Amino acid sequence: MLGQQLLNGVVLGAVYALFALGFTLIFGVLGVINLTYGFYFSAGAFLALYFTQGLGISMMLALLLAGIVTGGIAVILDGLLLTPLRRAKAPELASLMVTLGATLFLYSLMSAYFGTDIRRLPPKVFTNVGFNWLGLHIETSQLLILVTMVVIVSGLGWLTQRTRMGLAIRALAENGTAAQLAGINAGAVTRIVSFLSGGIGGLAGVLIGMNYNAIEPYMGEQMMLKGFAVVIMGGLGNIRGALVAGLMLGVLETLTAGYIGSSLKDAVGFGLAVLTLWVRPVGLFGRATIKRA
Amino acid sequence: MSPVLQVENLVLGYERYDAVKGISLLVHAGSVVTLIGANGAGKTTTLRGLSGLVRARSGRILFNGDNITALPAYQIARSGITQVPEGRQIYAGMSISENLALGAYMETNKARVAQRREHVLSLFPRLRERLGQSAGLLSGGEQQMLAMGMALMADPKLLLLDEPSMGLAPLFIEEIFRIIATLKQEGRTILLVEQNASAALEIADYAYVLEDGHLSLEGPAADIAQNPKVAAAYLGM
Ligand SMILES: Nc1ncnc2c1ncn2[C@@H]1O[C@H](COP(=O)(O)OP(=O)(O)OP(=O)(O)O)[C@@H](O)[C@H]1O
Ligand SMILES: [Mg+2]
Question: What one-character-per-residue DSSP string does A201-252 give?
Fold first, then answer.
């Protein structure tokens, strides 16, 4: 029983971690809290629905395509909304307001077009199959979530730590002026980072849509609240922190629902986030000690 | 021989205010040129204009004969101008080794990068001992050396130095100027901005004096050092 709870918790946590990864990547490198991020989550799920149901594409390919398209949407939205603000060196509050406004607009557009009813992937498109393994029950969507998370996390780790592009991304995150003076095209790196994070947000949306077989326009808004809790716990901009905090939140939520009561489940994340802000505002894994300059 | 850098009537500013009000200057290959002036005269703004961090309002910047006035900063960097900005712009959270690698970001030939790195580490032996250490933990003087080392990793055709001695202890200042002298001997082309006018005039071939956004005086550095007005205003004599 506990084993099963832990497994379910890790799977839920993997989605939280994945989602928070994209969000924290935007903040860490581009220095903005981009509230349109939750929209990519909803958009990913709807795109997957369209690709499978509308175009008859296989679920796996639809997952990949949805990630690519939401990545593209993120690049366009960043270019439209935030590039002008960067050029004008507008205060941080401006980017918050602009992305908040855009998100509300996009959500209402989606619900006007698709309605707010919960949509489901038709059985011929995707059916969850369960396996029993070491006394645990695991479903295809859960397996897919774990695999996707491992692939994305190791891919992102490899990209940022082992490649020239990763060096440029980290340089922009640390010091944009120095990066430009070293010949790094900040605009291009910004687009790459937007694409990666938008794509990750979209993938997370497809995976959750599959796992619960429920897709609706405001699903991204729900997720965004969890994303905030995770990113606060992990430390804004901290990739490793987002991972650990995401997994932790998933496990704690599941255990709370299982042993205390499901009505308290959602309170866990915010309780922990507030506690983190009190005790260690830089996040549980914050790097407050590294920077001295 | 045509100059490496030719600036014509350059105007630079912030919002409604012009900080540099039409200056013209030349830097020839292999020479060290210094730009001196009081606080707020516009020295940093001039360098930021040359490296593309501040857009020119009017005038032209020619680099080896090419008009680079409208290019974005990263393209100016790629064309061979490297600025060491005021106040030690390093990547504080990254290791010294990674900082140096980023200095050579534009160079994809690994052998060449390794060779430059060896050279930089021979100029700044303090850095060699601490390659794996986080750059933010270096002292101010060491950070300035790292910033210069990063710029040299780009093997620039024109090096812009903005007050490399600012805020440093006398021993570090001496070392920084010794390194600038070495770079001069290597034949590098340098535009040096300094508060420490006497040291700058000693090392430079040619000097410009900037006063409230205008060039008030120019000439061979030795002559400028002898000028009574300069002596009174900048050399504390
Ligand atoms: N980012 C900015 N926005 C608005 N005004 C600025 C900005 N940077 C500099 N200035 C103004 O432009 C003028 C020239 O500044 P600049 O930094 O070029 O002087 P400086 O000669 O480098 O001085 P210092 O010796 O103190 O470094 C000053 O009046 C300054 O207040
Ligand atoms: Mg200055």
Answer: HHHHHHHHHHHHT-B-TTHHHHHHHHHHHHHHHH-TT-HHHHHHHHHHHHHH
Per-domain residue ranges for chain B? 1-80+156-237, 90-155
Average pLDDT, chain B: 94
The residue behind tokens 């600036």 is B7
Residue scoring higher pLDDT (A161 or B191): B191
Q: Residue A292's pLDDT is what?
A: 31
Check whether A33 has a pLDDT greater than 70.
yes
Flag if B150 and A175 touch (Cβ within 8 Å).
no
Bridge partners, residue B13, by sequence: B18
CATH superfamily assigned to domain B1-80+156-237: P-loop containing nucleotide triphosphate hydrolases (3.40.50.300)
Contact B136 A174 (CB under 8 A): no
Residues in chain A within 8 Å Cβ distance of B106: 182-183
Token pair for B39: 């606080």
Q: Does A239 touch chain B (CB under 8 A)?
A: no
Instruction: Please state, rounded to an integer, the average pLDDT across all residues of chain A.
Output: 91
Q: Between 1.20.81, 2.60.40, 1.10.3470, 3.40.50, what CATH number should domain A2-121+140-279 receive? A: 1.10.3470
**Ion ligand 2, residues whose Cβ is below 5 A away:** B 44, 86
- What are the residue ranges in chain B where pLDDT is below 50? none
Q: Look at residues A200, A232, A211, A176 and name the one whose alpha carbon lies nearest to residue A10.
A: A211
ipTM higher than the 0.95 cut: no
Of all protein residues, the one whose alpha carbon is nearest to atom 12 of ligand 1 is B19
